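Sample 1 of the test manifest.
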Amino acid sequence: MNVGRPIMAAAGFKPAGLALVLTLTAIQAFGQSAYQPPKLPWGDPDIQGIWPGNMGVPMQRPATFGERTTLTEEEFAKKQEQAKKQAQADAESTAASDTKVGIGPPSYWNERGKPTRQASLIVDPPDGRLPALTPEAEKYRKEARGGKGMPGEWRGKADSWEDLNIYYRCISRGLLGSVIPVVYNNGNQILQVPGYVVFRNEMIHESRVIPLDGRPHVGPDIRMYLGDSRGHWEGNTLVVETTNFTDKDAIGSNGAGYPGDPGYHSGQLKVIERFTRTSAKTIEYRATVDDPKTWTRPWTMLIELEKNDEYQMIEYACHEGNYAMTDILSGARAAEPGAKVLP
Amino acid sequence: MLVRYRTFALLLLSVSFLYGQNTAYKAPRMPDGHPNLNGIYQAVNTANWNLQDHPASAGPMWELGAIGAVPAGKGIVEGNEIPYKPEALAKKKENFKNRRTDDPEAKCYMPGIPRANYMPYPFQIVQTAKDILFVYEYASSNRLVNMGKPMEAPSDTWMGTNNGRWEGDTLVIDVTGLNGLAWFDRAGNFGTDKLHIVERFTRTSPDHLTYTATIEDPSVYTKPWTITMPLYRRVEKDAQLLEFKCVEFAEELLYGKYKKTGGQK
């Protein structure tokens, strides 16, 4: 708009220019972007490209922030300073002699993202925190697997692979877990053909083919980790509704980045995603999570995706290279009293 | 006379397959003028059991009875023979013997190329104005075919580095950078990380693609060899890919011996 106005003025169309500004303001007030994305030959807005997630925004906001959604200049400056130091440390390809030995990859593998002012991925409820669990979900989680609870992070003990979450098992990270940025391989790619949008996630290699033809969802007996997605355009926003989930995966239980609440949901989960291209380089991705069996109210995440066509998506053969599972389980057996070491 | 006639017919057939012009069919076009290959396809043959001619036989697990048995099938290898070097043929036989546990399909590993195209699961071709994505239902595997400037394999992978181009109405995909860990079928046919595969997809009717792949690997074969088959469009209303995330079905096989209770269930 700042670019457009002088041109309007120069052409002597002040009233028209003003009307345009008012219209744009009105559109923005309704949450639509003023940016007009290019159109594909069949009329759909073009949102194609590689849109990696940006690491570094916590899922939940620190309680001290209250309803403040962005960092102050001071907090942001501090974050930038930390990022600079981190980048220097990451560039070191050998560990310092006093570094604790860990099982993680070398730090230069990590994607740290670009510091932003966003205080949390969760933008609704207004405090940026997960809403309370329903009593039913509390009970379910406590009693799951004979009182062992839901599988989570590896804490040194494992009787079976079922004691580890589905990320460790390389099954899937679920629909939202596949978008929430983690340590590395955060590539997302969008492809479009008439009647379909495909959302492709680099980590654990997912390709969600989303029909746009208004067909009904599959029957209720068909359950999938990534659910069953149907999309349509509302103006320039792609709206995708997904149902038919399993109750075996969790939102954000990626083993990295978001420890704490594993976000297990029920099969009643419904996810509404909204993809809006807000500039040539940015997509505003909002996902509303509605699962009345698990959470006392719906909640919404906002993830800013930035286009990077230089980004190379590499095959992420998670299960094929899952040496960790064999090592964790055989290690746990070897640590048992009187254990014979298995080959 | 009859023999000569047959040879001539076969020659004619091969030539027409080669140029993808065995019918006068002209495929619908994309806005860029190339044939539109978008759709959900599936092979209807027994190539995933065995690329070569094979009679019906018992499967690797008697426990499954006739459910696990192998249906008879005409091979899809041109001339039926795979020109293995002697030591490679021995390895293939070894693979066959250990197929119940060693076939990467049993472990839910990615199928590799060409096997992904004739697994008993559908796949979807997503042909954009730029690149072409193949989405396979089996194990959520997929591969992006780069239609731009050919790129070198950044690293060996299960699904390879795929560089595509159009030769007339045929999509030609040059596949390199395969890690050679995938098998070609449940009979243990295989290649190595030296594989170079050239695939051709031609839309030969509203509901068919003709698929051929020429397979080259001087470390195991004495010469290149070719497979050919039709791929069928899934024509049912609202056809769609579902999920076959099979890791869960392979964990007992892979990790069962490390379980606290120990051993197979």
